[in-house]
Structures are given as C-alpha cells and as structure tokens.
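Students often ask what a holo structure prediction actually looks like on paper. The answer is less mysterious than it sounds. You provide the chain, you provide the ligand, and the output is a string of discrete structure tokens encoding the 3D arrangement of the protein together with magnesium ion.
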Amino acid sequence: MEFHFDRALRTLGPSLLNGVGIVVYITIVGFLFALIAALLLAIGKLSKNKILTGVLSVFIEIIRGTPLLVQFFYIYYVIPMLINGIAATMGYDINVQFKAATCGIIGFAINYGCYMSEVIRSAIVSIDPGQREAGLALGFSETQVLFRFIIPPALRNSIPVFGNYLVMMIKDTSLLAMIAVQELLLRTKTYASQTFLTVEAYTILAIVYLIISLPLSQLCKIIERRLKRVR
Amino acid sequence: MGMLEIKKLSKSFGDLEVLRDVNISVEKGEVVVIIGPSGSGKSTMLRCINLLEHPTGGEILYQDQDITKLGKQVTEYRKHVGMVFQRFNLFPLKNVLENIMYAPIHLNKLSKETAKEQAMELLRKVGLETKADAYPSSLSGGQQQRVAIARALAMQPDMLLFDEPTSALDPELVGDVLEVMKQLANEGMTMVVVTHEMGFAKEVADRVIFMDGGYVVESDTPAEIFTNPKNDRTRAFLARVL
Ligand SMILES: Nc1ncnc2c1ncn2[C@@H]1O[C@H](COP(=O)(O)OP(=O)(O)OP(=O)(O)O)[C@@H](O)[C@H]1O
Ligand SMILES: [Mg+2]
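The corresponding structure tokens follow.
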C-alpha cells in the first residue's frame, strides 16, 4: 500500500481552505442566531403565560427529539415545497428555493437555539433570588430586573457550555454535505471519488477538523478558568 | 398620623397564616426594632412594607396612601423605601462603586459625575472609601453589608428596612455594621429593623415590637420591654435570648 499525502495535500488543500471559509461563516452566523433564538426561547419559557410556555415546550421537544440532519432536509426540501404548494393553491405561481448555506444557518439557529435555551433557562433560575429582590427594592421593575441583574450573570455563567456547543456546531457542519453545501466533507468526498486517494483525503479532513476544534476547546477551557477566577 | 401605618395586615402562604391582624405605626425619624422567635413572621412583615410580599389583607398607608393598591406605581414607592438584606445581595459583577451608583443613575437620572461623588461620600460614611474599586466577592461580610447600606442610601430613601442585617456575619464584624446603623439613627433616618441584637435594640430603638405567631404581641419603649415586659410570651422570649 502506497500513500500520496503530499499530492493529496497539494491538490485537496486549497479546496479545503475554501471549505473552511464556508464552515467558519456558517458557524459564526448560525451560532449568533442560535444565541438570539436561545435567549428569546428562554425568556418566553419563563413567562407566566401558560399558552406561550406550552407552545414553546412542545416546539423545543420536537426539535430536540428529531435529528439535526432531518431538520436540515426539512428546511431545504420540505419547507420550500410547502410554501410553493400553498402559494399554488392560492393561485400564485412561485418557486421559492433556499440556498443550502442559508438552510444550514436556519437549521443551526433553531436546533442549537433550543438546546442552548435550556442552558440559559437553567442559568437564569439558578441566579440567587436575592438579586431580584435587591433590584426590586431599589425601585427597578420586574422586566428591568430580569434584563439588568438576572440575564447578564446567567449568560456569563453559560459561557463555558456555549463554548462546547460552538465546537459541536463546527463539527456538525459536516452534516450540511447532505444538502450540498460545499463544506469540508463534501469537498473531500468528491475529491476522493475522483482521485481514489481515499485514505489520504479523509485523514487530511480529520486533521483539518482537529486543527479548528482543538485550539477552540482549549480556548474555552481557558475562558472557563478565567471566569471562575474573577468572582 | 405616622409616616407608615400598617393596619390589620394579614398574610397567608396557601393555608399557612403567617401574619394576623398586625398593626404598626412608624413616625418619621423613628427607629422601630422588631424582635421575636424564628418563624414569627418578622421578615414577612418587613417584606410586606415594600411589597416584596403582597399582603393578603389589611392596609399599609404610606404618607396616607394605601400602597397595597398601587399596581405598577409600586416601583415609584419602592424608591423611597430602602431595604438591607441579611445576605447583602450585592450585584456580584459590579464593583462597589457601580453597585452604589447604578440605581441613582438609571432610576433617578443622576449624571455619572454626581452619582460618583455621592457614592464616594456614602463610602466615606460607611468607612469603605478605599474599597471603591473592589468587587463584592473580595470583601468581608461586614464590608459587603456596609456597601449594601450605602447602596440603599444612594436612592435617598425616606425610610430604611433592615432584615437581620448582622445575622450572616462573623461576630467580630457585627460591630462595624451596627455602628453605621446607629449613626443613621442619630441622623434621623426612619428605620424598621428586624434583629436579634438586643444590645442594639436597647440602645438605639425608640420602640421595640415583639412578634410571635404572626401577631404583634407587645410594642413599647425598649426600657419597658426589656425591664418590665407585660406579656408572658415576651418574658419567655427575652429570658431565652438575654
Ligand atoms: N414564600 C413563602 N412561602 C411559604 N411560606 C413562607 C414563605 N415565606 C415565609 N414563609 C413561612 O412563613 C413563616 C414566617 O416566616 P418569616 O420568614 O416571616 O419568619 P421570621 O420571623 O423572619 O423568622 P426568622 O427569624 O427565622 O427569620 C415561616 O413559617 C415560613 O416558613
Ligand atoms: Mg426572617
């Protein structure tokens, strides 16, 4: 058995570099939207409105109970079909299609948003109730107290867990190969099938993922330690 | 008419009646100390005064207005009534100065400069001007409680409520906090203080109220309560704590 890592690296490398750009872009944007979705879901679930909390709970259970890959397919294939179908019955002839990368971002925002909302929610309820009382006693309203004295420390306490989710999201971008996003896995697969340098290609792919995620997890650990040290 | 008139106040948590027919009147400038056994409803009563607990029945008149019917206006009322908690409840992500300046800046629209000047003044008053930039977690309990008092004072309240302000402190740190409270009393601050510090009650209180089982059992000058208690339950309680 003979390996040609140098050749593989020379020809696959530049393509993977472009793939990294796409992965980083989708991860950053997806993660930001996931954070926003998570915060909104968490606040919604803390509401006193039983209907709202009920609807949100069901939604979160549905998302957490189905695979992320299925959700990507659903957003990429099913949702446009539904939109076009409904439009057609109303007499409009449209052809909505989402870009695959956009579907990736939407899927991550929803899926990770649901998981991270539970992180934020439990961080919120574990903030000492004395903080709320101190804020109220000074004359702040319940809403002001929530946004000024409860959510900031809750988010801060959630940062280490967020870090883990960020690393997970990077790895999960490989699922997007299935809806034809030109990320790392799809590029590698195409390359391997054209050159038959299968071992080399997938080994390089694995190393590229490690190069991205290892320093990031390390950084997360450092931040976590920092956060613990300062208060 | 007192500044604060509590009339027929009652409070239940579900089936548990914690306060029954509590009547208390507080004059401007008066220091009222509330004593009583654990579970007698002292904290609940105090928390009703600034509506951290909503009473089940009765009225609380503050400057002749029934505050139990305030609705959203309650935030306005709370600005006039400061509260100091047993566990300090400082904001851990803000330093000492920020803890004190935050509410005046955001609720009273004080400029940063004015708020800072005022905060430094208050820190001098509680003897912590060197701790302005420290974070709460680096302070002792006694220091944290004095910051908490400064934070409450920064809103320039008409009245201060204290719920066992020294109970969470190591014995050697209690004195500094009591000293600050004594000074406030001397300056004419209206204060309602729940405490187990009988020495403070004797020395500083204008009136001592003994609560038991959700009732005000006895209310009198410290001299009377401590040397000549009228009620058996008061006597039994004092015999235990003195
Ligand atoms: N939020 C609540 N829900 C249910 N019961 C409560 C609540 N707050 C207080 N209680 C109960 O009300 C009673 C009076 O409590 P409170 O805290 O007012 O007593 P206290 O006189 O301050 O006692 P301590 O000296 O121990 O602080 C207790 O039996 C307590 O368990
Ligand atoms: Mg109490």
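Helices of chain A lie at 5-45, 50-65, 68-89, 100-125, 129-138, 142-172, 184-195, 198-229.
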